[in-house]
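User: Can you write out an input/output pair for a complex, sequences first and structure second?

Assistant: Here is one pair. Inputs:
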Amino acid sequence: MTQNSISDYIHELFTQFEPALKEKLIAHVTMKSFKAGELLMQTGQYFRSTVLIVKGRVKLYREGTDGDEFFMYYLEPGDACALSMICAAKQESSKIMGKAIDDSTILMVPIALMDELMKLYPSWYYFVMETYRSRFEELLLVIDSIAFNGLDERLGFYLKKQGEHLNAKQLNLTHQEIATDLNSSREVISRLLKKMEQRGEIRLYRNYIELLN
Amino acid sequence: MTQNSISDYIHELFTQFEPALKEKLIAHVTMKSFKAGELLMQTGQYFRSTVLIVKGRVKLYREGTDGDEFFMYYLEPGDACALSMICAAKQESSKIMGKAIDDSTILMVPIALMDELMKLYPSWYYFVMETYRSRFEELLLVIDSIAFNGLDERLGFYLKKQGEHLNAKQLNLTHQEIATDLNSSREVISRLLKKMEQRGEIRLYRNYIELLN
DNA sequence: AACGGCCGGTGACAAAAGTCACCTGATGTC
DNA sequence: GACATCAGGTGACTTTTGTCACCGGCCGTT
């Protein structure tokens, strides 16, 4: 993978933006990179920018008061972080954690620019609206899964989501990681995974899980 | 309570809107009333308008696949329904239920008007952004309560929220209603309420609960 | 090769939550 | 007043989930 410039990323990932908007962004955004495993955002942090993901995948977690973490969704190249928009707009902090799972790169759009972009560029306006919409829907799915389903169904939902976002049949996840993401415990997850294996839905190996179907 | 006109409601509840925006809205919104207990929106319904609440209180539920309902939050006069915005914008349906708990009135802003309002009136733009922001935060709190807390804490959280939104110390709720809202069962709720009473946090009566503290 | 750390498996038990059956007392209706 | 209905209480039991203790294998480091 070559080292892309801001301009490259914007032209590759945001083809729907009108040329003037792209130029505006190229002139004003700043780029920042993170190593796999690093935290992009932490509880209590204040945003002064809207964050666009241009490389790598980022896991977004909700943090509980006692340090628990609960996985909500992935951000991928071309996505904006809805929470950074919200927090940036109101200068508020939020109990959110973002963790890079690959080496990742983000672009930061200064909040001072947001109102102008919204007014001048319809494609930006639609992009922001679509970001809110899709994240809202995603949160509702998360609520569904914990409000209406047992841990076994949540686990299935979780594995399916992982498979989609990593687009792989082999998930490099330990039972402990899954347990943490679902705010459960390793033993319980191990047992449920074993049942799924017995039902022929997955196959278990050391350090990874193979999705069947 | 006198029968208010669209104009009355807009001038009373949306004082932050600039005069031209108020006039625009008055000219284009339609008003609709619901009796207590009626459903404002149902699973599968398509919105062709953004909904503003101007009278009464509305409970918003998420619906599960098997007809379960899970209470998320209240909408009050002056609020916009973020979900109606989202669904209207994309012409999608959503598994959402809204129930009027008082006699309620809403204003419906045609989606065709939305882009224009967003561009022309900064106060509308901020109102929409603030609506997304506050509902997003509210959903995150809901996720917190079900992801990190036991049913006992969720019940406390629920009662507190009810107290705030009904601004009363006496909650006219049956144990069955609470159980339904929390997607639990009456017996369990009864037992937990009894424990809260023993701890001196509430007092139980037939058909209502008194909040102490 | 020896060590320690990480990964996963397992049995026994405890706690939380849901379910079932049945009861009591209040309330409203005819 | 008789009756049905509704709100709520209670005990016994099951299921689900979490916890504890401990084991064994795999793997990297030295």
